[in-house]
Amino acid sequence: MTTAPEAIVGEYKWGFYDPEEALFKANKGLSREIVNIISDMKGEPQWMREFRLRALEIFWQKQDPPWGSPQLKEIDFDDIHYYVKATDRDERSWDDVPEYIRRTFDRLGIPEAERKYLAGVGAQYDSEVVYHNIREDLEKQGVIFLGTDQALKEHEDIFKEYFGTVVPPADNRYAALNSAVWSGGSFIYVPKGVKVEIPLQAYFRINTQNMGQFERTLIIADEGSQVHYVEGCTAPIYRSDSLHSAVVEIIVKRGARVRYTTIQNWSNNVYNLVTKRAVAYQDAVMEWVDGNLGSKLTMKYPSVYLMEPGAHGEILSLAFAGKGQHQDAGGKIVHAASNTTSTIISKSLSKDGGRTSYRGLLKVYDGCENVKSTVRCDALLLDEESRSDTYPTMEIDAPDVHIQHEAYVSKLGEDQLFYLMSRGLSEEAAAKMIVNGFVEPIVKELPMEYAVELNRLIELQMEGAVG
Amino acid sequence: MTALLEIRDLRASIGEKEILKGLNLAINAGEIHAIMGPNGSGKSTLANVLMGNPAYEVTGGDILFKGESILEMSPDERARKGLFLAFQYPVPIPGVTLVNFLRQAVNAVRGEEVPIREFREKLFSKMELLKVDQDFARRYVNDGFSGGEKKRAEMLQMAVLEPAMAILDETDSGLDIDALRTVAEAVNKLMNPNMGLLLITHYQRLLNHIRPQFVHVLVDGRIARSGGPELAEYLEARGYDEFLAELARA
Fold it and tell me: Where is the ABC transporter domain (chain B) (predicted)?
């Protein structure tokens, strides 16, 4: 049964839901049986089934991290559907996607965006990918962009070589959970020297109430290649909570460049506990652009492991926490080789009692020379009830390291508001302008369409923020 | 004829401290007035109170602009009515380009969306008038600006917004002589018979470049003396200490 949605945030535009018409919906709760059912239904090779079952054992043994939000304890793992399959197939044409699902993605503007400015699109609805397509010219150059399940079927060799190597199941409790029940996600392989100039995008939608979405994304950028992947996500607003726990693994080979952009806009009843990690080899560049606007609780720290000389890692993190939200975001950079560089820029906004935390790790291994890193965290509080914390950790085991670290927390300035208002802007317009300026360093890194979208989302969040 | 701006027995405080203690002043369209005064006399308070800075509390008197009391108006309402304050310390707004800021300000003050083309033409012509580089408009508002750049940006805003009444708060402070001349030239170009101008300054030197018809000396929250341009020269020659001593004797 579907519960009537209850608006938590009045301005959340994507809170609509479809009547549940799933082909298969696993009973609530987690067990070996559920994991076996998932593996059976997907017709997976034995090694994957064993991988899942091992991960399940790890999940059962592991605890939440001691530093995590106390809200984690509120998750009732017995009250979640771990697998909900809406359709049988991952289609290549929107015409073949079931009507009601296609309508949902239409409302989200995905097919239109695909026609206008994307090189390929994937769409996941609950547990399964319902659509995946890539421009023919890229396909001809050998670029693979598939749902992760389909990729396992069609490209098992390359899949097996990399899957679980960047984020092993034992990495943390939620990585273990994902490894046990994963379903969907994107698989991208970009061959040597191929540059995908236009973004590929995946869109994740949760529809079912009390649903757990556990997509798994694997991106391999071969030597000298380039790709920009964008993901977006939304869900209906239900009275009860859903869980989104993804694992993303990225391998950036010598001289390659990957940018991974997220615009996370889950409804405020979604726990978003995601492990994202990339390894970058010689002269490779990995960039995370991580925007978190939605969800009830997000804990996510995109990471880059700089494995060989010349590698560069960059994390741009933007978090906006409104009423009842906690955005615990940040990033991790691990310098495991000499002559590596990194930058972390974090911008967070809190209002109406919302809470943001920056949590970061910067690690430089012993023996690494000529390492440079810049970390900058800015937090802006829009009112007195809101909160922001910074938890930077540095583990520097090498002497020849140049590190710059700056952190600022500021309140929406009365002097800034007065200045802008003295030029005719209303208080609300002035506050929006200050906030838009504050997030500009992140927004300007986005493709224009996403920058517009992000600014719009921030404006919606800002409605009634002052006065 | 009603004055463009009329200040009647104005009293204002910040926190518990009363700063303006019954200030009277009337400015007509086409007039340039200067208010001079020693540090702590209430010059900046006056500028802030006129523009409606919520950090200051008006405890008595009235401010009439175009014949209407503006005391209850928020700063943006005052701006839309045609009041402009060039800040002594313009505030940086990182991440917001001057051109975007000005566009929104112009739209707000006009109360309608000005077509982008019309806006750009206006902006570029004013930039040319003020001898400002085109790159300037793409920089973030006051962010990392030199003292001179900040003041020039204020003048550019004034030029584009075309207020009926402009208040220049210590616009000469922090400027070297060349920058001062440039800014003063800008003001002279922008001044017109329909506009009122109030210069608030500690030093006489700005008044060598922008010639006021009326000079007022502010002491302890009140206008202590009013006169013509000669009063400014008199002050400059004697210094505030001697002027104050003379006042005390009188």
Answer: 5-245
